[in-house]
Amino acid sequence: MLLQQFNDSDTAQLHAALRPCIDIQRWIDEITAARPYNTLSQLFSCAWAAATPFTTTEIAAAMAHHPRIGERAEGNSAEAALSRKEQSGVDQGNTALTKALADANRAYEEKFGQVFLIRAAGRTPEDILAALERRLANTSEQEAPIVAQQLREIAVLRLKGVMSE
């Protein structure tokens, strides 16, 4: 979407375009309300600011939409397609890595009561596994801001993917 289209879109169209980035209505509303944007940089800065901070309730709601690392998101939604693209570097044919990710995911979920979340784009599967294993040593208090940061990165990265010059 071009910046001018973004600025000129009606609210419903814009909400539909933003929701796959992260399904947090306050974030979507803040970005929509701040239009018009003069530059993409201004839009991305606003998106980052709107995501800082996400509340505990917003994080929990957004986490409900994220598949486990190493698992392919099901369905035809824009969000599922984005997730599949972001996790495309995780080779399902590498059974040792797939098993290690599944085991570490299970341990993370048992410890923290939620799926492990990381911005997968730009990371190798080995990097993801190493981060997962490192973060298993965290307390819930240490992990919460990391999860929020990852959600912010994912949301803004997805927004950048929606936009074009």
From TrEMBL:
Entry GO MF terms = 2-oxo-4-hydroxy-4-carboxy-5-ureidoimidazoline decarboxylase activity
Any Pfam family hit = OHCU_decarbox
Q: What's its top-level EC category?
A: lyase
Fetch the InterPro entries from UniProt. OHCU_decarboxylase (IPR018020), OHCU_decarboxylase-2 (IPR017595), OHCU_decarboxylase_sf (IPR036778)
Q: Locate the Oxo-4-hydroxy-4-carboxy-5-ureidoimidazoline decarboxylase domain: which residues?
A: 7-160
| Signal peptide (UniProt feature, chain positions) | none
Q: Which reaction does it catalyse?
A: 5-hydroxy-2-oxo-4-ureido-2,5-dihydro-1H-imidazole-5-carboxylate + H(+) = (S)-allantoin + CO2
EC number(s) in its UniProt entry? 4.1.1.97
User: What is the designated name of this protein?
Assistant: 2-oxo-4-hydroxy-4-carboxy-5-ureidoimidazoline decarboxylase
Give the originating organism.
Arthrobacter silviterrae
Could you tell me the gene encoding this protein? uraD
